[in-house]
Amino acid sequence: MTSPLGPMPSLNALRAFEAASRHLNFRLAGLELGVTQGAVAQQIRALEAALGLKLFERHPRTLVLTHNGQRYATGVRRAFEMLADATQGLRPEPLHVTVSVTPTFATKWLIPRLADYTRLHPGVDLRILATEHLSHFQTEAVDLAVRYGRPPFGPGLTADLLFEECLVAVGSPLLLRRSGPPGTAGDIGRYVLLHDSQSPWADYLAQHTPPAPGASDPTPQAIWFNQTTLAIDAALTGQGLALVQKDFVAQDLSTGRLAKVFEEEAHTGAGYYLVAPRKQRAPEVVAGVRAWLRSQAGA
């Protein structure tokens, strides 16, 4: 029976021609297709014979498409792209959830836990959007966001507490041994204080360190960072003391890379919340990721 499409060249010959038309080299086309240079040349000769047209001009070190070869290459490439699109259209879109977090939350809390996520959710890709600006759920296709502050965060949004803000003063053990542990507010003057947008050092010291007897407390030198993760990294390298969320340095404290300067912790009443729109494009998938995040936070 005659094909309704009419006589067609072999698919292997067309693949060889399409690859050779891009590389203008039979050897490189063969490497791409996993066959020998001779096999590509043979396929091209058979194709030219079937068409009754010359597709390439052969030169000592290169190939040049003929006018007919250029026209044919454009059509063949378009046909392969249509085949690829048709095949892709049969496959369901991979499930994914986009989570917006700050760079500090990503590096100091989320990334160390991702191995557990991939083990438990092999069929759902997690897309991490790490940014300091407030992401928009609709315009940026964000499914979940971790936001610092106090609810409510806006109409049509749900908010689940991951963990309360609990600030601890930390420094490298080497720095504390070298400069001596501070006992009073006056002792802090021996240290550089590392600040970020969420480190109320003045309030913390006023609450948790007694004033130096009979002397005015010196003003400590300060370094300011726009991200908490930078203040933590500076503390790790012995540059000064950082006042940061306890959950972000829990691993460093447990391994001894950082040590608490004071045992006192500061609870501010704020917290880190998992925020999401009430209407979700894939509610069951998003609910699974939300449950995993809450379990990791012990919420």
TrEMBL record:
CDD domains cross-referenced by the UniProt entry: PBP2_GcdR_TrpI_HvrB_AmpR_like
Record flagged with keyword DNA-binding: yes
SUPFAM superfamilies: Periplasmic binding protein-like II (SSF53850), Winged helix' DNA-binding domain (SSF46785)
Keywords annotated in UniProt: DNA-binding, Transcription, Transcription regulation
Similarity remark: Belongs to the LysR transcriptional regulatory family.
InterPro entries according to UniProt: LysR-type_TF_proteobact-type (IPR058163), LysR_HTH_N (IPR000847), LysR_subst-bd (IPR005119), WH-like_DNA-bd_sf (IPR036388), WH_DNA-bd_sf (IPR036390)
One Pfam family here: HTH_1
Superkingdom assignment: Bacteria
The HTH lysR-type domain, residue ranges: 9-66
Protein's name according to its UniProt entry: LysR substrate-binding domain-containing protein
